[in-house]
Amino acid sequence: xxxxxxxxxxxxxxGDRSYEESSVVIFGMPMDYTVSFRPGSRFGPNRIREVSxxxxxxxxxxxxxxxxxxxxDAGDMMFPFGNAAKSLxxxxxxxxxxxxxxKFPIGLGGEHLVSWPIIRAMHKEYDxxxxxxxxxxxxxxxxxxxxxxxxxxPIRKACELIGPxxxxxxxxxxxxxxxxxxxxxxxxxxSRFEVAEPLKEILPTLAGRPVYVTIDIDVLDPAYAPGxxxxxxxxxxxxxxxxxxxxxxxxxxxxxxxDLVEVSxxxxxxxxTAIAASKFVREMLLGWTGKK
Length: 292
Description:
The chain is of the alpha/beta class. The protein has a single domain (24-288), classed as 3-Layer(aba) Sandwich (Arginase, Chain A), CATH 3.40.800. 31% of the residues lie in helices and 18% in strands. The protein is built from eight helices and ten strands. It has helices at 44-51, 84-100, 115-125, 154-162, 177-186, 196-202, 238-249, 272-288; strands at residues 24-29, 58-59, 64-65, 71-76, 104-109, 130-134, 167-172, 189-192, 210-216, 254-261. The protein has an eight-stranded parallel sheet with strand order 4-1-5-10-9-6-7-8, sandwiched between helices. Strands 2-3 form a two-stranded antiparallel sheet. Strand 9 (210-216), helix 7 (238-249) and strand 10 form a beta-alpha-beta unit. Helix 1 (44-51) crosses helix 8 (272-288). The two termini are 32 Å apart. The model has no long low-confidence stretch (mean pLDDT 95). Its cofactor is Mn(2+). Mn(2+) binds at residues 112, 135, 137, 139, 216, 218.
């Protein structure tokens, strides 16, 4: 059983179409078992849904309306609590099912480790997969305090799977010295501190390729997104992240799936972070899905 049918019943705005009639599937991954600072991101997916009711269905950024996209909100996956390895396997199997069924996956985290099994499933489907990673943290550790399954490791795992030259990180402003050294020596692309402008320079080089995009909400400065487990000062604004999402939408790359992770409602005064995240999801839905 993949999903807990007892979750609140709230779906992302206009996400009540059936699985069968939808080309896009939103699903929550409520896992935060490996976080190194503040837990609570397992509650993020449902809070993003709840605040989405305040969104307009029309996006002036994309000049599109949500009624133009057939999408299904499957709810939150039901994990064996505390068992990271089994939870990751469940995410990978579900993503594989979505790809077999021809669905575009949009995952809501949860901690950033949940992106790793999706990337694994994507790699099986697309030999020439590239990953765009937007985050405050490098996430290039091989382990954290002896644990290889950690929210600080998914991008290192992605580099080892698809080759570091196929991984593009933006907005990075935190990490161990060894992580930055690995990025410099391995051949991966890392843009420090900024997102939109360096991303726009890279996008033409990825034209035509299948690309998976993972966004950690903590790329935003805590002034814009206090509700996250490992906040980092010196981040970008909500406007810059919207600009980056629009740039991807207007590019010639083929986005094949995406996620948004690390929203933690317990630290989110006034739902500032969840409200921003729900708007980003709307833009991802309208800008990235259905591209050929």
